[in-house]
Each structure stands twice: as structure tokens, then as C-alpha cells.
Amino acid sequence: MNISIVVAQKEHYAFAAEICDTIETSALQRGTGIAKRTPEYIQKKMETENAVIAIIDGKFAGFCYIESWQHGQFVAHSGLIVHPDFRNLGLAKKIKTFVFEYSQRKYPEAKVFGITTGLAVMKINSDLGYKPVPFSQLTTDPTFWKGCQTCTNFEILKSKDYKMCLCTGMLYDPKEKQKNPPKHPFNVRIWNRLKEIKQALFLKK
């Protein structure tokens, strides 16, 4: 099995529709909200070298893209996905690590953040040195939050004045980086409980 993780280029345009379908199908299967993206949007990320793709034996295996906000002060990694045919290979962490290191080179001064409901993504972020933070510490750029409008949980976010949702905010600040950055222990039991509490509060009739 030949695994290649690279910065996506125009030669990968052909995978854009499959990437969008895989992201949406995965979200529906998990029952989680996700902001939808079009093939044209994915291709634009490839054109500007703000996307990473994993290819295995010539087939699309995984993907993630970079977004920058407030003139590069903040960077987010979005759309992290692994194709069902290539799961359980540790590929998600490899892609996330690659895009994390790549974005630090491309945007060395930026704070790296993300919002997610996925425990697997939270675990990967925690291992990379992210820490959970309130939404107030994330970008204030309205364009970022506008991207949540296609998420099934958008009404919850809007009702909480964009300060809270089912997603958890996580942040990596390069200014706090040390030679051996301390990791923030990820306890699945605690995060599952937090998720249950949020769902009980926000999804109650």
C-alpha cells in the first residue's frame, strides 16, 4: 500500500466532488452537524495550496484544508476526512499532523484553532498541543461563523449569540509553544459526558 500525503494541486481537482460527498456522508452517519462545501470551494483551496490530500494507490484516501482569518492572525483546519475504504490505518492523525506542520510554516504567527463535535479530532488536536477554549478566544471574523450556516446546529449557535454550540473550540497559540510543549490530557469519558450535557441543554424541546 503506497500512502502519499501532499499539498493538493490542480492535478487533484478531479477528487473534489468525491471529497465533498465523503465529508457529507460521514457527517450524516455520525449524526453530527457540519458546514457543507462545494467542489468549486475545494478546488479553490487546492489552487491556493491551502489543502492537503492523501492518496493511496492512486485513489483519494483523505483530505483537510486550511482557512485563514483576520489577515492571517488565525488559521483553522477544516474538512478533515478519511475515505471509508482507508479507515483504521491512523490516516486521520497523519493528515492532521501534516496540515498542522504545513500551516505553521505558511502562517508562522497565526493561532491555530478548530471547532468540532468529533471526539477523534479532539484527541488528535490535544496530542498536537491544542487546548479547549471558549469561542470568545477564537476568531471574531463574521465570515468564519457565516460558514456554519449550512450546519444542522446553526440555530443553536445563533441562539447563543455565537458564544456556544455543540462544537468544542480548541486553540494552539504558537507564542505559548515551548521546546517540549505540554500536552493537554484527553479523557474520552469526560468529553463524552460534556457532549451529553450540551445535547441535553441545547437539543431539549
UniProtKB/TrEMBL annotation:
It comes from the Bacteria. CDD domains: NAT_SF. InterPro entries: Acyl_CoA_acyltransferase, GNAT_dom. PROSITE patterns: GNAT (PS51186). Residues 5-163 form the N-acetyltransferase domain. Pfam families: Acetyltransf_1. This is GNAT family N-acetyltransferase. It comes from Flavobacterium polysaccharolyticum.
